[in-house]
Amino acid sequence: MLRFFPQKDKYIQEETEYSFDKNLAIPKHVAIIMDGNGRWAQNRRLPRVAGHKEGMETVKKVTKHASHLGIKVLTLYAFSTENWKRPEEEVNFLMQLPCDFFDAFVPDLIKENVRVNVMGYKEFLPAHTQDAVERAIDQTKDNTGMVLNFALNYGGRSEIVTAVQEVYQELVQTNGEASSIDEEMIAEHLMTGFLPKEMRDPELLIRTSGEERISNFLLWQIAYSELFFTNALWPDFNGELLETSIASYQHRDRRFGGVKIKEDEK
Ligand code: FPP
User: What is the mean pLDDT of residues 10-25?
Assistant: First the structure.
């Protein structure tokens, strides 16, 4: 168990049970709920948006680190379908962030061979955000390395509803039977359906800031994900903490509902 204690602007690691081992399994898909930007700013008597700006810098660092570790898909929860309830000024700032982020960072992403994807109800984003997103997707479409997958105006329940609606349409058009609907069919229609099958579900889900809940993120895809919660606020998260999260994952006993059979019992 890891505990971080705020000490001025730092988090100190009290106890590390495991250390990261690059020779052990690296999760193919890591998803992160980037929480705590507001508190990071408040702790410094800054406006909340200053926390989001710093959070954007963390995204850049963590993206590079994840790509260097050999992670294949990094899914980041940047804006939920519920985040529209925030003050207008903050929403406007959050909608400008992808523009600033991609303007500054796409050359680095190309250098790193990282491909951008954005999953979410993009049609409801302001035009300038949509343009920035589409440009980044297009500029990085030939990259063959890690997929940097932003969840933007994303909600897990809505995603499942949309998938079911699409499956229903398909059945109507093909006179299919309801009983022909299976998990594979639903998974194909989810927003992670563009990924190769073996990479759609994150093996590891990280949430920063000490909150221990899922907040409507990837509800279907995290059925068997390992969860890792850290008290570090998102702007304080970094490559070292990413490795710490993976170290914890590397020592989990993943059974997928089965039982672990010891070598001498096989
Ligand atoms: C949650 O912290 C954070 C968000 C809703 C925004 C996440 C956005 C970023 C990390 C910026 C990067 C985005 C892009 C597209 C590059 P919070 O504001 O809920 O924090 P609090 O719980 O402390 O108030």
Answer: 72
Cβ proximity of 120 and 46 under 8 Å = no
Does 105 have pLDDT greater than 80?
Answer: yes
175 is catalytic: no
83 is catalytic: yes
Q: What is the distance in angstroms between the CA of the first residue and the CA of the last residue of the chain?
A: 31
Per the CB < 8 A criterion, the answer to whether 40 and 81 are in contact is no
- Please say if the pLDDT value at position 18 is more than 90: no
Q: What are phi and psi of 201, to 5 degrees?
A: -100, 130
Closest CA to ligand 1's atom 18: 38
- The CA–CA distances, whole Å, from 116 to 10, 39, 43, 149, 203 equal 31, 28, 32, 6, 20
Lowest mean pLDDT of 10-24, 158-172, 209-223, 242-256, name the range.
10-24
- Looking only at the bridges linking them, the beta strands covering 226-229 and 73-80 are unpaired
| Nearest ligand 1 atom, CA 102 | 16
CA of 58 to the centre of ligand 1 (A): 11
In the predicted model, what is the mean pLDDT of residues 136-160?
A: 98
Which of 199, 244, 233, 256 is CA-nearest to residue 65? 244
User: Encoding tokens for residue 264?
Assistant: 């001498």
154 CB-side CA count, 13 A: 24
| Each residue's pLDDT tens digit, 193-203 | 999 999 999 99
